[in-house]
Amino acid sequence: MTISDIPTADDFFTSGKELLDFSWDVVAKLLSDIDQAECYGVEPVEISDSYWSAAKRSLTTALSITQQGVEFILKGEIAEVSPFLLIADVPTKWPSPYKGNGISFSEFRTIDAQDLVRVIDTFAGEPLGTDFGKQFHRLREKRNSIMHSVDKRLTVDVSEVVESLLFMHKELFPTESWAAERLKFLESAPDTELGAYEYARNRVCWEMDLAIGLLQPAKVSKYFGIDKTQRRYKCPLCMREANTDAGFEHKLAVLRPKGPGSAQLYCPVCNALYTVVREDCDQKSCPGNVLSDDGECLTCGG
Fold this sequence. Notes:
Layout: E1 3-4, H1 9-35, H2 44-54, H3 56-81, E2 103-104, H4 116-123, H5 130-148, H6 158-172, H7 178-187, H8 200-214, H9 217-224, H10 236-241, E3 254-255, E4 264-267, E5 272-275
Parallel strand pairs: 1-2
Antiparallel strand pairs: 3-4, 4-5
């Protein structure tokens, strides 16, 4: 008897990351919309409470989608060991192998979300740890409340969704940069067929700028690899790749190490280091002294 359609770890990882990106997309739109409030003649401070109150359903949905994405990724961790560890129930409840038509893996009931961490910690080479387990189960419980009730007391803050997503991604893919992953998604999104590709770099820099503004310095350091209190500069590659017709003001890159003689700039969007030139900008009004290798000022962009 052949079991067909057996999922791979990459199948789960891809689906999980797509859901994380979808969740981020919801939150990023909310943040960018209110960031542009003044363009509509509205003061953000004046409408903030009513704006986020109206966004409650979007935020709770984004949190639920984040949880679903994490579950897919955890299933991928298990599938790396063996996809058959995902099968639940005793053999008497499995699909019958005697019908002669073969069995699709999707016909098996898989293990419950509450058991995913335990299975990984039992069989995987490196356990996820107690901190991850606590955060995962807290997120799962909140997601269940969102999906299975209409509790009017339930609140979800935008920073909670952002931090939950960044925490989970960092724990599950510690060598990856979420900003770099988000850029990949934007560069392959359906609207790139409509010309949005040339704005992908602008958009991801804007989104990360807004996210950094929400987070405490320790969280910024953990998830973006930069010191929030440190002076930031424009990334030379982001400036070249972005559409600068209307300007490009996002400064996310920092000197590494910090210091007047440092000649390396780290960009969390590129997740890369760039060599810079330490010379004064030739614009009299600009105090910058960090230039790209072709002479662009990374403070004013001149």
